[in-house]
Amino acid sequence: AELIDLSGHIEEDQPMAGSADETRLFANLTHEERGFQVKKELEEKGMDSETEYVTRHLRAEREGYEEEQPMNRTMIVSEHGPTHVDSIDHLDPTSDLSIDEMPLEWFHGDAVGVDVSHVEHPDPITVEDIEGELDKHDLKIQEGDIVTLETGNRRENYSTTDKEMKHRYNSKFVGLNEEAATWLVESGAKGIGIDSISVDHPPNIYPNYNFPVHALASREEVVIWENLANLAEVAGMRYTFSGLPLKIRDGTGSPVRAIGIVE
Question: Which helix (H) or strand (E) segment is 202 a member of?
Answer without folding.
Answer: helix 202-205
